[in-house]
UniProtKB/TrEMBL annotation:
The keyword Repressor does not apply. SUPFAM superfamilies: ACT-like, HD-domain/PDEase-like, Nucleotidyltransferase, TGS-like. It is an enzyme of class 2 (transferase). GO terms for molecular function: GTP diphosphokinase activity. Keywords: Transferase. In eubacteria ppGpp (guanosine 3'-diphosphate 5'-diphosphate) is a mediator of the stringent response that coordinates a variety of cellular activities in response to changes in nutritional abundance. This is RelA/SpoT family protein. Transmembrane segments: none annotated. Belongs to the relA/spoT family. Its EC number is 2.7.6.5.
Length: 737
């Protein structure tokens, strides 16, 4: 570069730095400015030899990120300094985290370290590794929530300046933004940034769609501005009469949200009816905020008829992101629906700045902040080592973006849950211990199943019992990440407990067969029964799925060395076929397909259009000639089958057959005597892994007959139960129907 060009660049850098101090949302003290200046000097030095892909000096990037942090998000001087330094440790060998701590203190160093950890995560990898990295990234929330906020600002600036990148790189970064960063910005309450990230994400993932909508918005802008002016004029006169201090703004909906509406409603751009919203922002002290919001609501609805089902009151019950506002949709001039958002200046700042404004206004209030509550909840889910990373990301995304419902506890306290949450989710949202001991639930005073989907306004009372504990079916009832992760770890604990008992049983049984239980014999058994881990083996022995006969067969095959040698040869040959090996692994876990709520085993065929394999999300379709055909839920034909032949669709899912429970009917006959029913029920209840579903007894002229429906995991358990029942005094005959 020529000296003249360098001089120009230095002037531009100095100008960008001054601009940063000028636009800060917080009032910066002399010490703040000193801290920011030191950070700026270190960043200049660290990045002096670096240039961006566009050719400009690298320092413009940290300056731009710091400006977003200062102006748009409104964070403090510590965060501005950390934003300036966010790439220093990663990009320069002259500075380490301990250097940063020595110069700027522990807090700045902690934030910079968190940001460096995120940046060092490998970018090009498969989905499960990406998910694992995302999980690690979220763990930095524990260090300081500002780490994630600065990371979002960093991503926003990268998205704004992506034009000089390769096309494939643009698509990858844009997809990751839509998948992770936009939902995170939404959850932290940074709505403006979320909107911009979504629009930029669409610009690079679907450029034609983006440009098409953008051009149409530009074309209709003049007509839209006139409409908003005419609409506002009507309300202004009435608001002025009430001597209110307010501003009215017309705001077009984002390109991304218009695109989503077009997709969801299956309409064209012209048919999307609410392409803009009118925002009324009023001045008020905190005491009168609510009163004035409803007063404005009353004035707006005096002039325009409201849509009664489109009223959203987030003033009485703020969203869990901290968002407060009153949203109404009214019928404006020319028969067009218009969304009107009513917010005080405080609410508007919280909506735009999220976290930062929240803390500015929260100083005097002792109420726990919803962001803190959310981070604590998230922490629990993140720290559960048993959760599969991909499942976690999917669940997390659902809970990030999902619409909310508000439900009441028996004492009238308000709780917010994602839409679609069940009474079991509510139990876990109160406390993990309550969730674990849940026996049932009452909604609005009426007993409901644990799978009951809650609606806004429900009052929920959870019934608990010391003897209650999670079972595998609970995973079908729970939708929130918190509840699911807790249930999974409880089931794992249960499996371990049964596994420990199974290990002792196996030791005894092998001793009778003159085999020692050691690492070698355990590995042999795991291979012999085509299992994955020793825990799977002990668990199945504990349940009785692997019984004496099967172990004797193993012992005899083991004693025959020649047979063992041949078997190994065959196994080796099979391992060459990679697909077979993978199939075996999956099938070992999900080896059985069941249909309907009763989870029946029926004959089926796998469809050729989507070729489902064990473990896929599937459904059954009842064909005219070929019985049940199984399709993946995301099969290309799924939508048309489900919309045209809904009555032929059957629920279906892959299960681990060792975990499956079967309904067994038992009939008993004998001589009646006092206490007989008690003897029968106590044996059924005390017998391990048996759950009684229904029971009926009748006595006639001294003879007794009864029917019991029980749920068991396998044949061995039912045999043991029948033997015990036969030994009861007075019982003559016990048969399994």
């Amino acid at each position: 570069m020529t000296e003249e060009a360098l001089e120009k660049e230095n002037i531009a850098i100095a100008k960008a730095y001054k601009e940063l101090l000028k636009v800060s949302y917080r009032t910066l003290s002399a010490d703040d400015k000193k801290l920011i200046r030191s950070a700026f000097d270190v960043a200049i030095d660290a990045h002096k030899d670096q240039r961006r892909k566009s050719g400009e000096a690298y320092i413009f990037h940290p300056l731009a990120v710091a400006k977003i942090v200062a102006q748009e998000i409104g964070l403090d001087a510590t965060s501005i300094a950390a934003a300036l330094l966010h790439d220093v440790v990663e990009d320069s060998e002259d500075y380490s985290i301990s250097d940063i701590e020595g110069m700027f203190g522990e807090t700045v160093a902690k934030i910079v370290n968190g940001l460096t950890k995120i940046s060092s995560l490998k970018k090009d990898m498969d989905v499960s590794m990406q998910a694992e990295n995302f999980r690690k990234m979220l763990l930095t929330l524990n260090d300081d929530v500002r780490v994630i906020i600065i990371k979002i600002a960093d991503r926003l600036h990268n998205m704004q300046t992506m034009d000089s990148m390769r096309d494939d790189k643009q698509v990858k970064i844009a997809s990751e933004t839509l998948y992770i960063y936009a939902p995170l910005a939404h959850r932290i309450g940074l709505y403006n940034i979320k909107t911009e990230l979504e629009d930029l994400g669409l610009k690079y993932t679907e450029p034609e769609v983006y440009n098409d909508i953008l051009n149409k918005i530009k074309e209709s802008k003049e007509e839209q501005d006139k409409y908003i002016a005419a609409f506002s004029e009507v309300i202004k006169n009435s608001l002025d009469k009430e001597l209110m201090d307010y501003t009215i703004k017309g705001r077009p909906k984002s390109i991304f949200s218009i695109r989503r509406k077009m997709q969801v409603q299956g309409v064209s751009f012209d048919e999307v009816y609410d392409k803009f919203a009118v925002r009324i922002i009023y001045k008020s002290d905190e005491a009168n905020e609510k009163f004035l919001a409803w007063k404005i609501y009353s004035i707006v609805t005096d002039h325009f008829r409201p849509n009664p089902i489109r009223l959203r009151d987030w003033i009485s019950s703020p969203k869990s992101t901290g968002y407060e506002a009153l949203h109404i949709t009214v019928m404006g001039p020319k028969g067009r629906w218009v969304e009107v958002q009513i917010r005080s200046e405080r609410m508007n700042e919280i909506a735009e700045k999220g976290y930062a404004a929240h803390y500015k206004y929260k100083q005097n209030s002792e109420k726990e902040d919803s962001l803190e509550t959310w981070i604590n909840r998230l922490q629990e889910a993140l720290e559960n080592p048993d959760t599969n990373a991909v499942d976690f990301v999917e669940q997390f995304k659902l809970n990030l973006y999902s619409k909310e419902i508000f439900v009441f506890t028996p004492t009238g306290e308000l709780k917010s849950l994602p839409k679609g949450a069940t009474s079991l989710d509510f139990a876990f949202s109160i406390h993990t211990e309550v969730g674990m001991k849940t026996r049932g639930a009452k909604v609005n005073g009426k007993l409901v199943p644990l799978s009951h989907e809650l609606q806004s306004g429900d009052q929920v009372d959870i019934l608990t019992s010391e003897s209650a504990k999670p079972n595998a079916n609970w995973l079908d009832y729970a939708t929130t990440a918190r509840a699911r992760s807790k249930i999974k770890s409880a089931l794992k604990e249960d499996k371990k407990r049964i596994g420990e008992e199974g290990k002792e049983i196996l030791r005894r049984k092998l001793k009778q067969l003159k085999i020692t239980l050691n690492e070698a014999s355990v590995n042999e058994l795991v291979n012999y029964f085509k299992l994955k881990t020793s825990l799977d083996l002990f668990y199945r022995v504990g349940l009785g799925t692997i019984d004496n006969t099967m172990l004797k067969e193993y012992a005899s095959s083991r004693s025959n060395a020649l047979m063992s040698f041949i078997k190994n040869k065959i196994t080796r040959k099979q391992t060459v076929k990679k697909e077979d090996l993978e199939k075996d692994e999956v099938t070992a876990k999900y080896d059985s397909l069941v249909f309907g709520k009763e989870e029946e085993k029926l004959d089926y065929k796998l469809s050729n259009c989507c070729n489902p394999i064990p473990g896929d999300d599937v459904f059954g379709f009842l064909t005219v000639n070929e019985g049940i055909k199984v399709h993946k839920k995301n099969c290309p034909n799924a939508v048309s089958l489900q919309s045209n032949y809904a009555y032929r669709i059957m629920q279906a899912k892959w299960i681990d057959s060792s975990q499956q429970e079967f309904l067994v009917k038992i009939t008993l006959t004998g001589i009646d005597h006092i206490g007989l029913v008690n003897d029968i029920t106590s044996i059924v209840s005390e017998n391990m892994h048996v759950d009684m579903k229904s029971i009926s007894f009748e006595s006639n002229d001294g003879l007794f007959s009864g029917k019991i429906n029980v749920v068991v995991k396998n044949n061995t358990i039912i045999k043991k139960l029948l033997e015990k029942l036969k030994k009861i005094n007075g019982i003559d005959k016990v048969t399994r129907v």
